[in-house]
């Protein structure tokens, strides 16, 4: 009996499992070489020829246009990792891929999928305990935060800038938005502008938006600004211009022109008298009004984007006003300074200081589009990890040390687990080894030798990672070399990788509509 349409495709049992597992593994494999400080970059070219060069796991997977449904689940692992903690996307994808690879071997040995799933979940619990044991003892101070930022950026294309100086900027930015309630990460923006060396990257105490003054004669800088944010068209309303005048004498024509002139003049004067010296509006501004306000020393921006308007409102404390008659002084926002600056084809407005300085912008410069784009991703990750580390106050050693510790603890615990589940728990530990093994491989070392040395060092010293410094690779305590990751990044990687791998393993029937 056929219950499905003839066009639908169905794969069942082992076939379904192995096809899904293969797809998941392939995804993990595709990002493996980018892991760590010596990871390589990928160049992705889309169908329209647009090029992205990146080292960022989530970016690669999203640009790859992956279709296989099981492979898509690994992309989701990277996405949720990015969303929750902002870093560790490659790690999570690579762990998930290896959990799948280990599961495949177990299935070959006739271990049932349910047993694998149970074993993996149990192992993940033990892994979280192992992470807790690796957490730093002291306080997470600026020094450690800088290390967290730097560890997340090493290996990324940071142009001519050292990860060290960028790390300092990142920590300063996050400290700037720290309040009693916690870190207001959303108050840190990153704005990129091509055209200078990346050394010109700086921290702006306020916001930067892509807007240009409505008139050339307007001041390029206003100090102590009272800022009005309007959703008002400043001019003769479009409807009235289109209306037909039944004009049959020169007098009537002159009258109509006069009426229009005085309406325009009225708007201009109302605004000038309101006391606002910087005006942002989401609508048009008549040239005559711009010109008049320029004469009054008012800086006006017209047709600004809705999201820019929201940013200005939130940074300066202004209230958006929908009708000119409603504009009152209490609606004004404030900033120490509003200035405009031209960068070749682009004009930018800076709203800085005073109330506006509750927000802060990392103003990223770089020679080419590719450099600033990758710099923006690296800084974005660094901002995320620093705020994650600051929020929880917990960091763990990087460079594979935490993964080795997890694998060790899980492997020991496996001995006490009965039945075939023990095999699954051991397999989980083996899958975790992939991180140090990959770090070693990406630095040109023999992965097996490195793993053996690392395990031995972990046995005797307790904390041991594979630290890369330029061309040198040392096995030692990563804390002493400033290679640290937020504990939450590792937790999230374990949880999301386990979840995706177990979900894929459990599927034994794929029914695809045409
Ligand atoms: P992910 O997308 O998972 O964050 P990365 O390419 O950023 O991938 O690599 C992160 C890994 O690199 C982490 O395990 C981190 O501890 C490690 N790492 C960072 N700096 C160093 C270093 N100097 N030596 C060795 N490992 C490092
Ligand atoms: Mg990273």
By secondary-structure content and strand pairing, the structural class works out as alpha+beta
The number of helices is 17
* Rg over C-alpha atoms, rounded to the nearest angstrom: 29 Å
Low-confidence runs of at least 5 consecutive residues: none
Bound molecules: adenosine-5'-diphosphate, magnesium ion
Q: How far is the first residue's CA from the last residue's CA? A: 20 Å
Described by strand count, sense and barrel closure, the largest sheet is:
7 strands, mixed
What is the tally of beta strands?
A: 20
Helix content: 40-55%
Average of per-residue pLDDT values: 87
Outline type: elongated
Q: Give the percentage of residues in beta strands.
A: 15-25%
Description:
With 514 residues, this protein is of the alpha+beta class. Helix content is 50%, strand content 18%. It has 17 helices and 20 strands. The chain has helices spanning 13-32, 57-63, 69-85, 89-108, 113-134, 142-153, 163-176, 238-242, 250-274, 287-295, 306-316, 369-392, 401-414, 421-432, 434-442, 447-461, 487-506, and strands at 9-12, 42-45, 51-54, 178-179, 182-183, 188-194, 202-204, 206-209, 221-230, 278-281, 299-301, 320-321, 333-343, 346-352, 360-366, 395-397, 465-469, 472-476, 484-486, 509-512. The strands form seven sheets. Strands 8, 9, 10, 11, 12, 13 and 14 form a seven-stranded mixed β-sheet that branches. Strands 6-15-7 form a three-stranded mixed β-sheet, with helices on one face. A two-stranded antiparallel ribbon has the order 1-20. Strand 13 and strand 14 form a beta hairpin. Helix 3 runs antiparallel to helix 17 (487-506). The longest helix has 25 residues, at 250-274. It is elongated, with a radius of gyration of 29 Å. The two termini are 20 Å apart. The model has no long low-confidence stretch (mean pLDDT 87). The site of adenosine-5'-diphosphate has 23 residues, from helix 4, helix 6 and strand 17.
């Amino acid at each position: 009996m056929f219950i499905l349409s003839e066009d639908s495709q169905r794969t069942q049992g082992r076939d379904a499992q192995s096809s899904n597992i293969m797809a998941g593994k392939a995804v993990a494999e595709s990002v493996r070489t980018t892991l760590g400080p010596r990871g390589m970059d990928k160049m992705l070219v889309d169908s329209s020829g647009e090029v992205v060069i990146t080292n960022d796991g989530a970016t690669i997977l999203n640009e790859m246009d992956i279709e296989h449904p099981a492979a898509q689940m690994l992309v989701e692992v990277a996405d949720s990792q990015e969303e929750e903690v902002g870093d560790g996307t490659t790690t999570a994808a690579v762990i998930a891929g290896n959990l799948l690879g280990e599961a495949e071997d177990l299935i070959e040995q006739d271990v049932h999928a349910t047993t694998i799933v149970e074993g993996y979940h149990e192992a993940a619990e033990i892994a979280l305990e192992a992470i807790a044991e690796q957490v730093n003892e002291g306080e997470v101070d600026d020094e450690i935060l800088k290390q967290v930022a730097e560890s997340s950026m090493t290996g990324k294309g940071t142009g001519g800038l050292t990860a060290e100086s960028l790390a300092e900027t990142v920590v300063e930015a996050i400290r700037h938005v720290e309040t009693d309630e916690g870190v207001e990460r959303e108050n840190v923006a990153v704005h990129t502008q091509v055209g200078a060396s990346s050394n010109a990257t700086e921290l702006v105490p306020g916001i930067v938006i892509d807007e240009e003054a409505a008139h050339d004669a307007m001041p390029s800088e206003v100090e102590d600004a009272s800022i009005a944010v309007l959703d008002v068209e400043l001019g003769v309303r479009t409807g009235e211009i289109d209306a037909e005048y039944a004009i049959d004498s020169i007098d009537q024509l002159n009258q109509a022109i006069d009426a229009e002139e005085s309406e325009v003049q009225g708007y201009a004067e109302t605004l000038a008298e309101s006391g606002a010296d910087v005006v942002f509006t989401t609508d048009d501004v008549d040239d005559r009004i711009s010109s008049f306000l320029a004469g009054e020393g008012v800086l006006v921006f017209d047709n600004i984007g809705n999201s820019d308007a929201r940013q200005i409102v939130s940074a300066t404390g202004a209230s958006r006003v929908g009708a000119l008659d409603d504009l009152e002084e209490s609606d004004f926002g404030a900033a120490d300074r509003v200035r405009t600056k031209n960068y070749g084809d682009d004009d930018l407005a800076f709203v800085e200081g005073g109330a506006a300085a509750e927000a802060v912008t990392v103003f990223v410069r770089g020679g080419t589009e590719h450099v600033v784009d990758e710099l923006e991703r690296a800084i974005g990750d660094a901002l995320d990890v620093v705020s994650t580390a600051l929020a929880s106050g917990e960091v763990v050693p990087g460079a594979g040390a935490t993964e080795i510790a997890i694998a060790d603890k899980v492997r020991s615990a496996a001995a006490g687990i009965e039945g075939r589940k023990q095999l699954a728990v051991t397999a989980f530990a083996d899958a975790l080894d992939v991180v140090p093994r990959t770090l070693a491989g990406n630095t040109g070392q023999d992965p097996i030798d490195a793993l053996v040395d690392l395990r031995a060092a972990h046995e005797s010293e307790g904390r041991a990672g594979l630290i890369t410094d330029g061309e040198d690779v040392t096995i030692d305590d990563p804390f002493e070399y400033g290679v640290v990751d937020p504990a939450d990044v590792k937790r999230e990687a374990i949880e999301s990788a386990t979840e995706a791998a177990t979900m894929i393993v459990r599927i034994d029937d794929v029914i695809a509509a045409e």
